[in-house]
Amino acid sequence: MQLPRWLFWSILLLIPVAFLLNLGVQPFIDDEGNRSVVALEMLWSGNYITPTLHGDYYYNKPPLWNWILALSFYLHGGASEWAARLPMVLCLLGFAATAYRVCRRHMSFERSFLVALLLLTCGRILFWESLLGLIDICFSWVTFGLIMVIYHQGERERWNRMFLLSYLLMVVAFMLKGLPAIVFQGLTLITYLVLKKEWKRLFSISHIGSGLLAVGILAVYYLSYNQYNSLENVFQALFVESGKRTAVAYSWGDTIKHVLNFPVELFYHFLPWTLLLYLLVKKKNRERLQGYFFLKFCLYALFVNLAIYWLSPNFYPRYILMLLPLGFILLVKMIPPATAERDNWDKVFYILGGVFIFALAGGALATLFVKETQAIPNLYLKGISAFLPLAGLLYYYWKKPSSQFFILAAAFIVFRVGFDLLALPPRAMGGRGQNLEVSSVAFAKRWQDRELKVFNETHMEPANSYHIEKTMNRIVPRVYNEFDTTTYYIYNAQQYDPALFRNQVDSFMVRHSSYPNYYVGQLRTVDPEEIERLTVGERPGF
């Protein structure tokens, strides 16, 4: 395994370009809208303790990511897709740097750098998660740090420090995403102590004290929260939010189907590097994992934590990003040294890698002839700029087999740059996301200086909420009672019969509904029985 200096520096220089170029071009998805609206409402209200959405208490996530977004909006002088996504990219780069730093204690520079590259260039991160301003990459970075703190402090027998630091990181992770942080902390800690035959330390003063300190820190926040809203509401929501992901909320049939599909999903989402699983076929490769406790810990920590999601039907690949470095460490450790004799399996992977680079180069060239890209300025210059480096890397790939993994990773990074230039702009031109933004912004400008409220349980799609409130620069409140017939209300016709309203004076586009628009009107009646009778659907979940 060789990493030429020129290739190393080229990759290092291209990484920030690949992840930052056109970062703010793509319209928000709904989850991004949720996080951003909550952050905006914090800035407007000055209340950073109780997250709100349309002025209504928002329970689904603790507030740390909203604080981070609010800071980004403040530093940028306003909310934007770029400002919402930049913190995620910085966390991703920090995540990769942490994976590299951890591996340097156990592997060569080349193998450590490769682990970081596999994390950055696996399909799910490169073409999905790194484009969106969501919590999960930051949460994964903190959780991976927690896992590694348990191992490295434990190996030095710094038990007090291990418990203290891991529980403090658990607090940070909890404030990002809630109960999953406790699950990762508990499973990893128990796994490590059982492997070391030190499980009795679970009953030590340092462990109990660290746990109580973590509870105390969280209690400070939630006691402050209790000054504004009942803790019963927020804790009930936290348990419901976590419980709806598990098998408890699904039938046996759904659970069995998920258990069978789960390995296939993982293989698909984290291509091309899941192809390295072929290394398990050869006994000599598996033997490279033996006799080294760090690798044993990575293996057990990976499967113990993965088992929770293997049994949880409501699963998204972003939930397990913190476990990716553990798997990649094991795979990279099994790669034979450059001097080893190549077998047929090695040759198959080598050929598949070449096919991937060829396909990437062909994809870059093909964008020049796609209808959707024709409006891009300097289209041919950008397309050729993406194609030529990929063609050069393909040539170098066949000439230097010892550098194949780094060349393949470099090809994906180059392709991501081309993707930023040639695929992201068309997504922002005339798609449903862009049309929704145009419709919502135009609506908000029409109602800029007029009173407007969200009616009762009306589900507002978060992307709509973001564009409307951002444009108005204020909270559009939700009301559940004390209705009147003079106020204009936003309502969802999927939930409320239009007959409940006296008129429809305006509307704006909705993305996920059987009705194409949200409507605005005045109530025909405020009689509770009539309102209940004309409520035709339940509020969809966020």
Task: Explain what this protein looks like in three dimensions.
By secondary structure, this protein is mainly alpha-helical. The chain has three domains: 80-334, no CATH class; 344-427; 441-533, no CATH class. The chain has 22 helices and seven strands. It has a five-stranded mixed sheet with strand order 4-3-5-7-6. The longest helix has 23 residues, at 81-103. It is globular.
In short:
With 542 residues, the chain is mainly α. The chain has helices at 5-20, 30-45, 64-76, 81-103, 109-121, 123-127, 136-155, 159-177, 180-195, 205-225, 231-243, 252-269, 283-287, 293-310, 324-334, 344-366, 379-399, 404-422, 424-427, 432-446, 462-472, 528-533, and strands spanning 52-53, 56-57, 453-455, 478-479, 488-491, 506-509, 517-522.
Radius of gyration, whole Å: 26 Å
Number of domains: 3
- Counting DSSP E segments of at least 2 residues, the number of strands comes to 7
Note the beta-strand portion: under 5%
Q: Class by helix and strand content?
A: mainly alpha
Largest sheet: 5 strands, mixed
- Shape call: globular
Write down the secondary-structure element order: HHEEHHHHHHHHHHHHHHHHHHEHEEEEH
Number of helices: 22
Report helical residue fraction: 55-70%
Mean pLDDT: 91
Return residue spans where pLDDT drops below 50 for at least 5 consecutive residues.
none
- How are the strands ordered across the major sheet? 4-3-5-7-6
Cα end-to-end separation: 47 Å
Search tags:
globular; 60% helix; 542 residues; single chain; 22 helices; five-stranded mixed sheet; 3 domains; mainly alpha
